[in-house]
Amino acid sequence: MNLEQLLEAFPHPVGPLRILVVDDQPVNIRVLYEVFRGEFEVLMATSGEQALTVCQEQRPDIILLDVVMPGISGHEVCRRLKANPDTRDIPIIFVTSQREEAEEARGFEMGAVDFITKPVNPVIVSARVRTHLALKLQSDLLRSIAMIDGLTKVANRRKFDEALAISWRACLREGRPLSLVLLDLDCFKQYNDRYGHQQGDNCLIAVAGALGHGLRRPHDLLARYGGEEFVCILPGTDVQGAMQRAEVMRKAVRALELEHQHSTAGLLVSISLGIATLIPDNDFSPESLLAAADKQLYRAKQEGRDRVCAIELA
Ligand SMILES: [Mg+2]
């Protein structure tokens, strides 16, 4: 797909695409600004230092980077951006005055995707930028698809593992509580036996939608853990807060009023939830938090299902 087709099929989430133009000569920036201003948001930097700051703060979608600059050179800017997980996926196109093969090879080794020679030809620079933006959008899209559960469209297990590790480190650093809510549908095997797998899938989709009501904060995450099991990561939420959210989720699922004649918890589809909360430290691991939540989920089942059980670890 070319850039137009991609943007039409998958609108970019945060407004227009952003291109960062870096050059120590403002006149060179001006030329590129004129090429791109109608189409993209053009960010500018006149030094390597400034370029690094803009990248950290604004995350451009692509960078046109001058090689020869006083202070931090283009090559060094490239090296630092590629060394940082937050910025390493931003495509970099070097813009150079003399085209020397050795220099070009070095740039590719450092992770640049392309080269353009000055003085720039507007048609060529525009075509190259559009090609690399299209590739970037496609790889972003692939990465996000790889993290989504195909049936319910919530995060998948892989995304959950990644997010749990990130939340664990953040809460460890900040001394804040981390809550996990593990839940599953009550008597789901009997549901599938009674209503069929197609209806079972529809039920999972509806439940996943209802569970979203329990999420409040930007770093909260709902994932399908497997089969009829889901899990929520609630960073910065203590055990009381997690119990409130779990109760919201439990009620939201009941409120769907999906018939389940073969459930021992009543005649409607319901969920059981287990919560474990702790302030991460080096005596515990993310796995031990998950195991504790699983134990609480088991307890909720034992005590009659359609309920929340919680534990605070310390
Ligand atoms: Mg220069």
Automatic annotation (TrEMBL):
<feature type="domain" description="Response regulatory">
    <location>
        <begin position="18"/>
        <end position="133"/>
    </location>
</feature>
<dbReference type="InterPro" id="IPR050469">
    <property type="entry name" value="Diguanylate_Cyclase"/>
</dbReference>
<dbReference type="Pfam" id="PF00990">
    <property type="entry name" value="GGDEF"/>
</dbReference>
<feature type="domain" description="GGDEF">
    <location>
        <begin position="176"/>
        <end position="313"/>
    </location>
</feature>
<dbReference type="Pfam" id="PF00072">
    <property type="entry name" value="Response_reg"/>
</dbReference>
<keyword id="KW-0597">Phosphoprotein</keyword>
<dbReference type="InterPro" id="IPR011006">
    <property type="entry name" value="CheY-like_superfamily"/>
</dbReference>
<dbReference type="InterPro" id="IPR043128">
    <property type="entry name" value="Rev_trsase/Diguanyl_cyclase"/>
</dbReference>
<dbReference type="InterPro" id="IPR000160">
    <property type="entry name" value="GGDEF_dom"/>
</dbReference>
<feature type="modified residue" description="4-aspartylphosphate">
    <location>
        <position position="66"/>
    </location>
</feature>
<protein>
    <recommendedName>
        <fullName>diguanylate cyclase</fullName>
        <ecNumber>2.7.7.65</ecNumber>
    </recommendedName>
</protein>
<dbReference type="InterPro" id="IPR001789">
    <property type="entry name" value="Sig_transdc_resp-reg_receiver"/>
</dbReference>
<dbReference type="InterPro" id="IPR029787">
    <property type="entry name" value="Nucleotide_cyclase"/>
</dbReference>
